[in-house]
Amino acid sequence: MHRGLICLFVALAAVSVGCSASRPDEFELAKHRAMYWRPDASRAEASPERITSLRDRCELVAARDLALDLAKQQPNDASALILASRAESDFLFVTAGDEQYADARATAAWSALDFAERAVAAGDEGAATVAQLAWAQGSVTHLMPMFARAAHARTIGESVARALAIDDRQSTAWATRAVLQTRLVTLPWIADVFAFGAPDASVKRAIDAAAWAVELRPSLQHALLLANAYGAAEREGDARAAVVAALEDERRFARDDALLDQARQRTAPTTEADDRTSP
């Protein structure tokens, strides 16, 4: 009887903790994608070169406007679709912590995955595209029913492996592996109960993957992922040093501006920063 009650409690907890947001249909995605932040951008500028240039300057809002518009104009073009997927992933960084965007963030995560899947289906199986697919897959993990997450984690791991088999210097793939490994080794007990069949994970793998991401692209995003991995190993000194090094680097990468406040918080010994670097 006692064991039955425990099982019932675990099942009910799984329902509540694992509450999911169902995948939006095409109409819902189209409605979301039409909600541009700054509609004053010239649609004539919606070119891959312009979008990439804006991202490189950390102008993620303007880049997203143009990327979504380009994907609308060229719905079967893999390069346009992957730019749109990346732009939707950028949305998650720029709006992190802002409750007014909570629902839009969930839809954006699914939108990023939809664009990435369509890019691969259109024939683009390059390392960068498959790596973005893996990242987008990771972004919807928390939106899935808990009992489905272990299998989904395996899918993410397989996508990462595919990307790295094509190009073992693909930083997004290493970053995704770092997030996946860190999440798996820091699962709360109730999630751990339902993690049967999830990929093997270790703190060392999380740190190694994040360190490679930083080596290949020393952005604040990757530094914070490394800090999270060090944090899982209770190596707070190393965690802080990783972020300090990134802050002192004069180079700027896409998403750096969106993560600047969090990075500064992460270096403050008495302040615990929230994790906005994970998908």
In words, what does this structure look like?
The radius of gyration is 19 Å and the shape is globular. By secondary structure, the protein is mainly alpha-helical. The chain has helices spanning 2-17, 26-33, 48-56, 60-73, 78-94, 102-121, 127-139, 149-166, 171-185, 189-193, 203-216, 220-232, 236-248, 256-267. The protein folds into two domains: 24-124, no CATH class; 126-273, Serine Threonine Protein Phosphatase 5, Tetratricopeptide repeat (Alpha Horseshoe).
List keywords for this structure.
279 residues; mainly alpha; Serine Threonine Protein Phosphatase 5, Tetratricopeptide repeat; 2 domains; 14 helices; disordered N terminus
Secondary-structure topology with pairs:
Elements: H1 2-17, H2 26-33, H3 48-56, H4 60-73, H5 78-94, H6 102-121, H7 127-139, H8 149-166, H9 171-185, H10 189-193, H11 203-216, H12 220-232, H13 236-248, H14 256-267
Helix pairs in contact: 2-6, 3-4, 4-5, 5-6, 5-7, 6-7, 7-8, 7-9, 8-9, 9-11, 9-12, 11-12, 12-13, 12-14, 13-14
Outline of the structure:
With 279 residues, the chain is mostly helical.
What's the shape? globular
The largest sheet, given as strand count, sense and whether it forms a barrel, is:
none
CATH superfamily of the largest domain: Tetratricopeptide repeat domain
Strand content: under 5%
Could you give the count of β-strands? 0
Look at the structure and give the mean pLDDT.
86
Q: In which range does the helix fraction lie?
A: 55-70%
Q: Give the ordered list of helices and strands.
A: HHHHHHHHHHHHHH
Low-confidence stretches: 1-18, 271-276
Distance linking N and C termini: 40 Å
The number of distinct structural domains comes to: 2
| Tally of helical segments | 14
